[in-house]
Amino acid sequence: MRFEQEFTVNRPLATVWEFFQDVPQVADCLPGAELTEDKGDGSYAGRLGIKLGPMSANFEGEARVEPDAGAHSALISGKGVDKKGGSRGQVKVTYALSDEGDATRVDVNADITLSGAVAQFGRTGLIAEMSSRLIGEFVECLEAKLSAGSTEEAAEIRAGEVRGLSLFISTVWSRIVDFFKKLLRSG
Fold first, then answer.
1. 72 φ/ψ sector (left φ>0, alpha ψ -120 to 50, else beta)
2. CB 70: neighbour CB atoms within 10 A?
3. Calpha distance 78→56 (Å, rounded)
4. I need a labelling partner for 98 at 20 to 30 A (CA). Which of 109, 157, 183, 184 fits?
5. How far apart are CA 70 and CA 73, in angstroms?
6. What angle do the packed helices 13-20 and 126-147 form, to 10 degrees?
């Protein structure tokens, strides 16, 4: 499944680029993510825990980050396994930063492949929609880290856990509301 997202960070390009090069800080802002090891040469080990309604998955795996400083972009390739639930996932993400004066636009393109029980959510489109909401939480955390008064203060700021049930319910509710809006417009 593929999806695209874009968001704006209210900081200059150089500041946002520098932040994105600090992978542990970025991982702190990814809801449900935990970086467990810097393997060197752009490779990292970590965990990603999610809870979607009654189902939860705790992926353990590795990712490789390949930045292109000249283009202010990067390719992130990762794969993980939920040993308890038997699900597997692979992801290729590219991001590109664009200068917008006092702000920076971030374009994200992701190609996610899921197998096992968690794959059923990919077929319904819920994962793409929930990703949009998680990006919002990521941006809030990123802005908070960049606004922190000290390095120590910034290090304490982390994204919360993925609030699966509330995230799932709000996503489903959003789809129901959109359905009725379309129905009312056509009728």
1. left
2. 6
3. 19
4. 157
5. 8
6. 110
Rounded Cα distance, 137 and 160, in Å: 8
Q: What is the pLDDT of residue 164?
A: 47
pLDDT of res. 174: 53
Name the burial class of residue 54, with classes exposed (0-12), middle (13-18) and buried (19+) by CB atoms within 10 angstroms of its CB.
exposed
Instruction: Tell me how many degrees the CA angle 99-35-159 measures, rounded to the nearest 5.
Output: 60
Backbone angles phi, psi at 56, to 5 degrees: -130, 155
Give the sign of the dihedral formed by CA 14, CA 20, CA 23, CA 29.
positive
How crowded is the C-beta side of 29, counted as CA atoms within 13 Å? Answer: 20
Please give the pLDDT value at position 47: 92
Tell me phi and psi for residue 62, to 5 degrees. -135, 155
Start-to-end CA distance of the chain, whole Å, equals: 32
Take residue 67 and report the two structure tokens written for it: 């930045």
Q: What is the pLDDT of residue 110?
A: 86
Q: Kindly give the residue spans of alpha helices, DSSP state H, lying in the chain.
A: 13-20, 23-28, 119-123, 126-147, 151-156, 164-186
Cα→Cα distances 144→20, 81, 182, Å: 14, 31, 37
